[in-house]
Amino acid sequence: MSCIGRFAPSPTGPLHAGSVLAALGSWLDARAHGGRWLVRIEDVDGPRCPPGMDREILRQLDVLGLRPDAPPQWQSQRGALYEAALAQLISGGAAYPCACTRKELVLAQQARDRHGDLRYPGTCRPENGGLRGRAPRAWRLRVTPGVLQWQDRRLGPQQQDVEHTVGDFVLKRADGLWAYQLAVVVDDAQQGISDVVRGADLADNTPRQIQLQQALGLPRPRYLHLPLVLAEDGQKLSKQNGAAPFDESRPLLTLKTAALALGLKDLPDTDHAADWLCAATRAWASTHNARF
């Protein structure tokens, strides 16, 4: 199986230390396996994406020397693919309309467990009465009961009971926008992604995506969830907590810092970016076993 990796940033802000780590990790993994590296702009949530930020991110990647092997793709241009996937799920009975508001879900959750995570209780499932005359707001996937097990290339064996953790999850939102879970599954399959390399904060999304892959008859890629860059308060470094863009005047230093966070040590102290990237690729192959 040939390796095709990807970096899929949401253009809600410029790249920072955390997103550079994800970009470098996915780039090194593809290169270490002699594969291809793609970039996908995940702008499916258009209202959160400032105009021009997608091009800014592509420019930043170029500054770092991380260049994709094919033209980037934009989720905002792929709605027809998501529509076809939803139609397939509906025709197979795997998706159903939902009329619940978030307020109703919060109140239902509080009635059961004030301290639990927000979980959809299946209110609008056809066998539970369906919409009951209310207008549909969103579409949900009917999740399969039981514990789903999967293997992460860094974290090892993982498992989650999707039904009891999150319940039937949204595929198309009440505002008409496509949900992340559906878009990423369809995109990864359409682009032939063999290896998803991303931050560990996204690991708990994986079981939902596997359920969608199964429902759509799509192949399951391999997963590797990277360590996170943390802010001073111990939270994940992100645009939401004020992460600063990386210093473009010292791109190689930015890459070296990310490599240390990835656990790559004893790399050559060189000022030649191409030589350093070659050495980092060899170190990644040694650490993560380039053979599948």
TrEMBL record:
Motif 'KMSKS' region per record, residues: 236-240
EC number annotated for this UniProt entry: 6.1.1.-
Chain location of the short sequence motif 'HIGH' region per the record: 9-19
GO BP terms in the entry: glutamyl-tRNA aminoacylation; tRNA modification
SUPFAM superfamilies reported for this sequence: Nucleotidylyl transferase (SSF52374)
Binding site for L-glutamate: R6, F7, A8, P9, S10, E42, Y180, R198
Function: Catalyzes the tRNA-independent activation of glutamate in presence of ATP and the subsequent transfer of glutamate onto a tRNA(Asp). Glutamate is transferred on the 2-amino-5-(4,5-dihydroxy-2-cyclopenten-1-yl) moiety of the queuosine in the wobble position of the QUC anticodon.
Protein name: Glutamyl-Q tRNA(Asp) synthetase
Gene encoding the protein: gluQ
